Amino acid sequence: TQGGSHLALFPPRNLLDMDTFSKSDPVVVLFVQGSGGNEWKEFGRTEVIDNTLNPDFVRKFVLDYYFEEKQNLRFDGGLWRGLSAALGAQDFLGQAFVALGEVIGSQRGRLERPLTGVPGKRCGSILLLAEELSNCRDIVTMQLCANKLDKKDFFGKSDPFLVFYRSNEDGTFTICHKTEVVKNTLNPVWQPFTIPVRALCNGDYDRTVKIDVYDWDRDGSHDFIGEFATSYRELSRAQSQFTVYEVRGGPGWGPGGSPPLGADPPLRPQVLNPRKKCKKKKYVNSGTVTLLSFSVESEFTFVDYIRGGTQLNFTVAIDFTASNGLPSQPTSLHYASPYQLSAYALALKAVGEVIQDYDSDKLFPAYGFGAKVPPDGKISHQFPLNNNVDNPSCAGIEGVLESYLQSLRTVQLYGPTNFAPVINQVAGTAAQVTDGSQYHVLLIITDGVISDMLQTKEAIVTASALPMSIIIVGVGPAEFEAMEELDGDEVRVSSRGRYAERDIVQFVPFRDYVDDSGNQVLSMARLAKDVLAEIPEQLLSYMKTHDIKPRRADP
After folding, report:
1. Do 521 and 404 fall within a single domain?
2. Strands 468-474 and 505-509
3. Where is the C2 domain (predicted)?
């Protein structure tokens, strides 16, 4: 989802010397592991550096990076013995295991790991650097108008709209934008629109951009008015002056000179000279189109903010209401057998193990709600799982799991199911630092219908202006219609006349991701992929809304 990230290998240091009469001739092999699987597949190899224990590799690996997936990598160092697929035991210099997210989430996208795997030996270390391929991130905003277009409708004027085509390497064209229709005029002014430069010209500033002018018809058989061609470079000149294009009728389109909308334009260069007149008698043009404005701004990415030092702070809230069933009973949603984790533990691990790569201290606040807690048996909706009110943070995801299992043994499951207290708790923390250096992700795992819907909607509306996102995972067989209302994909959440500033809630039922064969690793990978996919866009929407630019990473 974040495009190709450039993963550059920096030199392993102080490698084992395996050659008798000279230094080693090392090569590094990159293996990748499929999502939810155990199999390692070779992805590529560096070049061989002769006679050195501190090789400086030039070859880089280009990987697709997905925030929502745990992308495990393995680097094997060895001696070069020809093009054999595997490194023999006598050639092995050590290996390192790392997740791509760990490299990107590390300081300045730079991570050093020790090489291990040779008993009794220090194998040296490997230094990794991740860079995001920019691939033309600029976004263009432009506005156009037209003058004296051909009249196509019998009883009225035309209803014009524009269709933009990007030219491809093979000479074909691909539609990349359509404007809105302006009704009943031969002199339309279209609304400004925004388009990524890569969509307009694939990053090639001199590539032909072809623009067709159509008259809209209700039955879909839109009438072709004419065409003109330009390029990104020519369009960009409108930053300092108006640019006027003549719209010419399209020869070469077959009967009537009108192409079907969406068809590839003719396979011929479409760089037309706006001043060149058609040879037909008295024909001048089919009107003109003027580029009124053209501006360019750079689009920041999720990786820009992470590399600039933005930390993701992960908080967990777990449902301890009585509807989950007694934890000691196999029918309980909290029941963990010696052979497999409970649905709660699976959801926690699935999300937490991805997010922890972007949190430098690996300390995660963890709360429970809906239980009677010792010593006085009062109902609480935000009790710390580690029983430490002053510091509810647990060390790593394993620490959260340990505290969760300990709480099951000490609290009494009760009710009701209230979300607002823990949302307000995290929102209070998020409100303390709003400069973009911290972003909070709250994971709520629940089995049932929410009891405090009005208060929760109010809390979400307030939280939507803060640097935070909320993930809700529903476990068990209950119906979760109310949760869909909180997931503002269709209708933005509102409370007392106020609408959420952003969509910050993602809800999914865990049962939709359970693997039929019982493969828990695959179930967790599927769940994480879906619930975390919106986090990068939600983070970017907060930064954009509040005009926060990423900090420049130290060189």
Report:
1. yes
2. parallel
3. 1-115, 118-245
